[in-house]
Each structure stands twice: as structure tokens, then as C-alpha cells.
Design brief:
The protein is α+β, with helices and mostly antiparallel strands. The protein has a single domain (3-147), classed as Alpha-D-Glucose-1,6-Bisphosphate, Chain A, domain 4 (2-Layer Sandwich). Helix content is 28%, strand content 49%. It is built from 4 helices and 7 strands. It has helices at 15-23, 25-31, 121-128, 130-147; strands spanning 3-11, 39-45, 52-58, 62-73, 77-86, 89-105, 108-118. Strand 6 and strand 7 (108-118) form a beta hairpin. The longest helix has 18 residues, at 130-147. The chain is globular.
Length: 148
């Protein structure tokens, strides 16, 4: 048995703007910073079907996320396999599938993110709080760009 999660957020930006910021390396460096003192580095970046992206992020606890893109339909959908691990504990890695859809709603976009295949409810629940924060940061990043 596996466990899944779903997170939604309505973002005040067009579908194209949200999609592009979700996969743009410079944007990711900003919206991956959840707390003061967090840093984000992107070791590889190739957002295309068959491509991979590797990101290291965090503060005192550091994480590495390795992404392998399996489906990209700009500006509607991204699907990728994610291998996530805490750098302090290499034995704690996990592999899930992430499906992100971007649904235009006028000048806004509903982002629906599903992360599939957690091996336990505890692991799923540990990630449940992260994605809403990341999507809030993505929304804030786009708001800052509109205000500039």
C-alpha cells in the first residue's frame, strides 16, 4: 500500500507565468527558501522530458531533491519522479511521483499538486506541510515580480 497527498493553491498570475516560475532555475532559488537562513543551490537543471534537475536546499537541516521529468505539457502539466533525502541521513531517501497541473481561472491559476507513492502515512504527513509553504512562496515570488 502507498499513500498520496494533494495540495491546491490559487495563485494570482497567469497559467504561463506560474508554470514558467515553477520550472525556472532562478525563480526556484527564491521560492525554495522557506525560512530566513535557508539557501538553495541547483547543481543540474534540465526541465524537459528525460531531463533531470538536482536541488539542495534548507537551513540547519539540508535536503537534496533529484527530479527526473517524465511528462511536460507547458503550461498545463508537469510530471516527475522525485528522490528526496536529508543530507544528514542518507538512509532516509524516498522516491515518489509528483504531478502538478496548472489550471487557468481567468487571470489566476489553480495549482494542483499531487505527490504519489509515499511508503507510509507518517512520511506523507511529514511532507504535507512543506508543499503549501513552497506554493505560498511561489505565489509571493510572482506577486513581487508583478509589483516591480
Amino acid at each position: 500500500m502507498t499513500y498520496d497527498m494533494r495540495v491546491e493553491r490559487l495563485i494570482e498570475a497567469t497559467q504561463e507565468e506560474v508554470f514558467d516560475a515553477f520550472v525556472d532555475a532562478d525563480a526556484m532559488k527564491e521560492w525554495y527558501k522557506l525560512e530566513p537562513g535557508w539557501t538553495t543551490s541547483i547543481e543540474s537543471y534540465d526541465p524537459r522530458v528525460g531531463g533531470t534537475t538536482s536541488i539542495t536546499f534548507g537551513g540547519e537541516e539540508r535536503y537534496r531533491e533529484d527530479v527526473a521529468y517524465t511528462d511536460i505539457d507547458r503550461p498545463h502539466r508537469i510530471v516527475y519522479t522525485e528522490t528526496m533525502r536529508r543530507l544528514e541521513d542518507a538512509s532516509g531517501s524516498m522516491v515518489t511521483t509528483v504531478v502538478v497541473t496548472f489550471e487557468a481561472q481567468g487571470e489566476k491559476t489553480l495549482v494542483v499538486l499531487e505527490q504519489l507513492g509515499f511508503e507510509s502515512a507518517e512520511r506523507r504527513d511529514a511532507h504535507q506541510g512543506g508543499w503549501p509553504q513552497f506554493l505560498a512562496r511561489l505565489d509571493g515570488y510572482l506577486a513581487d515580480r508583478r509589483a516591480a
